[in-house]
Design a protein that fits this description.
By secondary structure, the protein is mainly α. The protein is built from four helices and no strands. The protein has one domain. 0% of the residues are buried.
């Protein structure tokens, strides 16, 4: 049995709430493939824009937090 058949069998066992989650994932995946990944590149630009106004180096902050956990 292939992955498609196994997936369909597992989907058949889900309740309606979980089916809606799966359906949303499928729609998101379809939209992503139709857009050619443009959504991801836009998100990257949004993050860069948000971080632009922060003073200091983000990498230094990350390293400091890692040291605090050790």
């Amino acid at each position: 049995m292939g992955i498609k058949e196994l997936t369909i069998e597992e989907i058949k066992k889900l309740d309606s709430t979980r089916l809606m989650v799966i359906y949303d994932v499928i729609l998101s995946m379809r939209a992503e493939s139709e857009n050619g990944g443009k959504k991801n590149s836009r998100a990257y630009l949004n993050v860069r824009e948000s971080l632009k106004t922060i003073q200091g180096a983000l990498s230094d902050d990350i390293l400091q937090h890692r040291e605090d956990r050790l």
